[in-house]
């Protein structure tokens, strides 16, 4: 996953980062080590947090539809 040209980001059921590859961290303007343990919502624009939380909650209910947010880097 480290050599992937795509950003790969894994979060747990509470929305905390458990893994991010170098490319994902670059997209967000940080490092993988700095992302570990931080809420994924730390990287969402403040105006989008409510919608991000709603979509995240739907994912926990097994909604498999993709969604995207602009990074707040």
Task: Explain what you see.
This protein is of the alpha+beta class and 73 residues long. It has one domain (9-60). It is built from 3 helices and 2 strands, in the order E-E-H-H-H. The protein has a two-stranded antiparallel ribbon with strand order 1-2. A hairpin with a 5-residue loop joins strand 1 (9-11) and strand 2. It is globular and about 30 Å long. The model has no long low-confidence stretch (mean pLDDT 86).
Distinct helical segment count: 3
Radius of gyration over alpha carbons? 12 Å
Uncertain regions spanning at least 5 consecutive residues = none
The main sheet comes to: 2 strands, antiparallel
Strand portion, in percent?
5-15%
Tell me, briefly, the overall form: globular
Q: Approximately how much helix is present in the residues?
A: 25-40%
What strand line-up does the widest sheet have? Answer: 1-2
Order of helices and strands: EEHHH
Structural domains: how many: 1
Q: Which properties best describe this structure?
A:
73 residues; single chain; two-stranded antiparallel sheet; alpha+beta; globular; 2 strands
Structure at a glance:
The chain is of the alpha+beta class and 73 residues long.
Question: Helices and strands in order, then pairings?
Answer:
Blueprint: E1 9-11, E2 17-20, H1 22-28, H2 32-35, H3 49-60
Antiparallel strand pairs: 1-2
